[in-house]
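User: Hello! My lab partner asked me to get a predicted holo structure for this protein. The small molecule is adenosine-5'-triphosphate, SMILES included with the sequence. Please write out the structure tokens.
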Amino acid sequence: MTAIVGINGIGKSTLLRTLGKVQPPLSGEILVNKKPLEHYTPLALASEISVVLTEPIASKNLTVLELISLGRQPYTNWIGSLDEQDRHKIKAAISMVQLEALQHKKCYELSDGQLQKVMVARALAQDTSIILLDEPTSHLDLYHKVHILKLLKHIAHETKKTILYTTHEIEIAIQLCDKMLILEKDRSSFGEPCELIRQQSFERLFPSDTITFDPTSGSFKII
Ligand SMILES: Nc1ncnc2c1ncn2[C@@H]1O[C@H](COP(=O)(O)OP(=O)(O)OP(=O)(O)O)[C@@H](O)[C@H]1O
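Assistant: Hello! Below are the structure tokens for the protein in complex with adenosine-5'-triphosphate.
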């Protein structure tokens, strides 16, 4: 599990959206399983990569169960009939994110945090080897942030999935992620959080007259 961090406007969402083929690359080339991203058909890509963006969903009139079921679209037939395996994956995703009690509610009835959990569950139901999430925990309280991220990390380790997410919650990412990508204006650093701490990469993120980084606790201090 890898977190992409960096100041506002540095390009975290742009990178994530480009990796998910939601927008074309500004430059360069992206290879997924050694194959250029542009060679994937939308259907082939949907069984390889799931993307959870920050935009509000258009289909809030669906129930939670219906929305999560849409994650199975790459695998269903042309009328979208769900088979036994689809139903199993959907049920497992609902259970992992603890949404059983909300599954028959309409999405417009949910809080922003509950909706974020639904979108994570939809990605889990899609069951791809790569999951990209743009600020997936921004509306969640501390407990639910940690719960979702620990769950994603567990899934990444158990099922060997790659989970890449953008976040401003750097201290949580330092504690939970296997790797981090720090985007800066003229450079980027990638590695294990402890290695990035050793390289003093977090010190450079914010102006030091306002915020400093304490490498011992792995946290930021306000001056
Ligand atoms: N590599 C790049 N080259 C040129 N422009 C870029 C690049 N990456 C991002 N941008 C532009 O910078 C702007 C901000 O990018 P983006 O929304 O990805 O930042 P962000 O790090 O996700 O910001 P925030 O933390 O505020 O959500 C966008 O207009 C985007 O098009």
